[in-house]
# Entry
Amino acid sequence: MLRTIARAHGAAVLIPLTAALLLSGCATLGGKKKGDTAYVARDVETLYTEAKERLDNGQYKIAAALFDEVERQHPYSEWARRAQVMGAFSNYMNKDYDKAIESAQRFLSIHPGNKDAPYAYYLIALCYYEQIADVDRDQKITQQALDALTEIQRRYPQTEYAADARLKMDLVNDHLAGKEMQIGRFYERAGRWLAAQIRFQNVIDKYQTTSHTPEALYRLTETNLALGIPEEAKKYAAVLGANYPGSEWYQKAYDLFGKKAPQVAAS
# Structure
């Protein structure tokens, strides 16, 4: 899906050209290896076309370098603007996310109102999204992904990028909720009931539309009973029963209260 969107974008901003190929990364120039010398000055169309062909052939690192060279050799041309966006995309495809973000941010700083700005914001969000780690690791990147996706929604709510961002935000929120649950369960196992409750309450307050909400309600029921606050436990059990009556977590809450659970849920 990501590639489809990116290629569709590329088709919208690229102008078909025919030109000679620039020397490849492993070619020689004047008896020297390509890596031993700077790129030879080329006309912008030839240089840009070679970069695009490298990108189409999956040579993402070379393509990114060539798009950068377009910008370096022809900084005030229309091609330089296009090259910034396509260079960012090439780095994204090469999984060099830091460079992709840097390129996209540079484009936005120079051309904030450009028609390709929504795509640049989207590309930044994708770079963070692709780096989301499992719940056992620090979730800084996950939060950055959520912030970037939210920014797309705020700035460009009617675009195709915002539609995809909404789908990804649901997954990111579920991921963040999962991290809160993991920490809460750890505290609960250690008998740190109040610390556990803070994490479970975060899920209810911030991520209540995620798949983790039923368990969070159950865990709040469980921890309040452990703290000797049965009335609070009953409130959470009631919410659980009203919203998720067929879930395994309500059944567990029912077992905690025994035969009183149906009356608790109805109250």
The domain at 1-126 is CATH 1.25.40.10 (Serine Threonine Protein Phosphatase 5, Tetratricopeptide repeat). Residues 157 and 163 are 8 Å apart (CA to CA). The two ends are 47 Å apart (CA to CA).
